[in-house]
Amino acid sequence: MFLLSFFACIIFVFASMIWISVSNIWCDWLQNFFPAVTKIWGTLDPRSRSVEVISDCLKAGMSVARFDFSWYDAAYHQETLENLKTAIKSTKKLCVALVLSELCKPTLTR
Needs which cofactor (predicted)? Predict the structure, then answer.
């Protein structure tokens, strides 16, 4: 009787260990199969345009990089875009570069 209960305990322990490892694999598979529905947007400004800062933002979950064309010229934003490309390659995280036309509003002066 003792041996039977001993083997039953061992079988239960191994079964629970197998279930835990299978559930971990299943959860990892689900997270990789279904991408995140929530998107984090970040505006790349002078304080956040370096490769290191952009890489940290990508690792934290940023999925959309927004460019504010109401400041600076096209060469400045081209350099920021190159920094974004470098950060994407180094972190292997995808990110969308977004330019909104409403950010370039014409202003009237008197």
Answer: K(+)
Mean residue pLDDT across the chain: 75
pTM: 0.61
Q: In what order do the strands lie in the sheet with 96-99?
A: 40-44, 62-67, 96-99
Q: Is 84 within 8 Å of 58 (Cβ atoms)?
A: no
Within 8 A by CB and 6+ apart from 94, the residues are 63, 88
* Tokens 């956040």 -> residue: 48
Q: Read off the tokens for 74.
A: 């096209």
Query: Nearest-CA neighbor of 52 among 95, 90, 97?
Result: 90
Where are the domains positioned within the chain?
Answer: 1-34, 38-103
